[in-house]
């Protein structure tokens, strides 16, 4: 029981010493754009949503890479910056 109390106290101390940030510094700045088009097929999502987004987002300065996925009723475009 003494060991359990020591572990509990050390855990509480460690918890209070953890640093928490609302906006942590990230070494690899990444943005994901999620869109929904309920009931649309992957081909429709790709031509109506994903392709226009890629054209516009591809012009952003500092863009290192861009990946996209179109599925039934949804699209995800991932942008990674320098």
TrEMBL record:
Gene3D superfamilies on file: Multidrug efflux transporter AcrB pore domain, Multidrug efflux transporter AcrB transmembrane domain
A Pfam family per the record: ACR_tran
One Gene Ontology MF term: xenobiotic transmembrane transporter activity
Domain of life of the source: Bacteria
Amino acid composition bias (Polar residues), ranges on this chain: 65-82
A cellular-component GO term for this protein: plasma membrane
InterPro entries associated with the record: Acrflvin-R
Region (Disordered): 60-82
Name of the protein in question: Efflux RND transporter permease subunit
